[in-house]
Design goal:
mainly alpha; Na+/H+ antiporter like fold; 19 helices
Length: about 400
């Protein structure tokens, strides 16, 4: 099929089905994945995977992860690091370790494959959870800050696991050290930007006074993201982590409120309307119906993630978020979506996992993305407001 026609069909179906899911109170990502499954070889076989679509998927992936980074600040993470670590251990590290052990010892997967499958299914997605926090009006509350900080930390760890697993000839130790160094440099540069924030704001405020300078500034931000992504790619780390880190350097205090608002609105619109639905519909083209034995693996992974993560999230929430009910805490941290699919897609591209295992990741993500948010009830907004200290960090959803 001609690429333009393929894009027309994929984007149309993905946007429509995703919007139907959104209106039903479910993550639009789930609808976009289903659109790809239906159009792909698994059902109708109208569109098949190709190198051209794969390249478009990589471009989309850069913009998606760059946007995720832009919408996160280091301030969110550093101000709530102790509570964030507790929730990261409860919602991700502990259940993912158990899931990996189940995959390796109960189902005989090689260690690398077991770790990737467990990580992809077990990682909460910042894009999904931030939408849930925004929907219930608690993104700017104290509990919302803690939850967001935890998910940021979790996603950084998950991307680090992906980098270590997909390093090829580069040693895992080297990659882990490189990731730690990259995080340290990120915090150091971020500190430098803060110290010169007034001067930087003046520069960007002057740039957006004319449309030509505005385009130049916007392009400069994209070049920054591409440079950092390329540097990490060159040393054997996935470009996804580089795009994410580069986005985190772009904040309101660094580029000014006006330019930051312009940048985020532009990136969000083009991502929501094109890159995100395109990426997930293309990602679902590779999905196949797994064999009977792999259905057992799927059930085990999802059950372990829900049961172990849910129990630990419940008690951790009682300790650190006492004003939010355990049911709501479990529902929020159960959000799955972009990050898990990104990890699975790159692992499939790198040849770390097979199409069957990738399908397990997609089905597991779909199940949890649909089921877990249903646990959240309408009392969440009032609960969070009671638990909030009223501080704001000036971050748009």
């Amino acid at each position: 099929m001609e690429i333009i026609i393929a894009l027309l069909v994929l984007l149309s179906a993905s946007l429509i089905i995703g919007e139907l899911f959104r209106r039903a109170g479910l993550p639009s990502v789930a609808g976009q994945l289903i659109a790809g499954m239906v159009l792909g070889p698994m059902v109708l076989n109208i569109i098949t995977p190709s190198d051209t679509l794969s390249n478009l998927s990589d471009i989309s992936l850069f913009f998606i992860t760059f946007l995720i980074g832009v919408e996160v600040t280091t301030e969110v993470l550093t101000e709530h690091i102790s509570h964030a670590l507790a929730f990261t251990a409860a919602s991700f590290i502990a259940p993912t370790v158990i899931m990996a052990l189940i995959a390796i010892f109960a189902f005989g997967l090689p260690p690398g494959q077991g770790v990737i499958v467990a990580t992809a299914i077990g990682v909460p997605s910042i894009s999904i959870i931030s939408v849930l926090l925004y929907r219930y009006g608690i993104l700017q509350s104290e509990p919302g800050h803690v939850i967001l900080a935890s998910v940021v930390l979790t996603d950084v760890i998950a991307f680090g696991v992906l980098a270590a697993t997909s390093g090829g000839a580069v040693s895992t130790t080297f990659i882990l050290i490189a990731v730690v160094v990259a995080i340290a440099l990120l915090l150091l540069v971020d500190k430098g930007l803060r110290s010169h924030s007034r001067r930087l704001k003046d520069v960007f405020d002057s740039l957006i006074k004319s449309e030509e300078d505005e385009h130049f500034a916007f392009g400069g931000m994209l070049i920054l993201g591409l440079i950092v992504a390329a540097l990490l790619q060159l040393i054997g780390i996935t470009f996804v982590l580089g795009a994410f880190f580069a986005g985190m350097l772009i904040s309101e205090y660094a580029v000014g409120k006006s330019f930051y608002g312009l940048l985020t609105r532009t990136l969000r619109r083009i991502s929501d309307s094109f890159f995100i639905p395109l990426f997930f519909s293309i990602a679902a083209l590779d999905v196949t119906l797994p064999g009977e034995s792999l259905f057992a693996l799927l059930f085990a992974m999802v059950a372990a993630s829900i049961a172990i993560g849910g129990i630990l999230d419940y008690f951790t929430g009682k300790r650190f978020l006492p004003k939010i009910s355990g049911r709501n805490t479990i529902g929020l941290f159960g959000g799955r979506g972009a990050v898990g699919i990104i990890i699975g897609s790159i692992a499939l591209l790198e040849g770390i996992i097979s199409t069957d295992l990738y399908s397990i990741i997609v089905f597991g993500t779909l199940i949890m993305a649909i089921v877990m948010p249903l646990l959240i009830n309408r009392r969440l907004t009032s609960e969070a407001q009671k638990g909030s200290k009223g501080r704001r960090i000036g971050r748009r959803p």
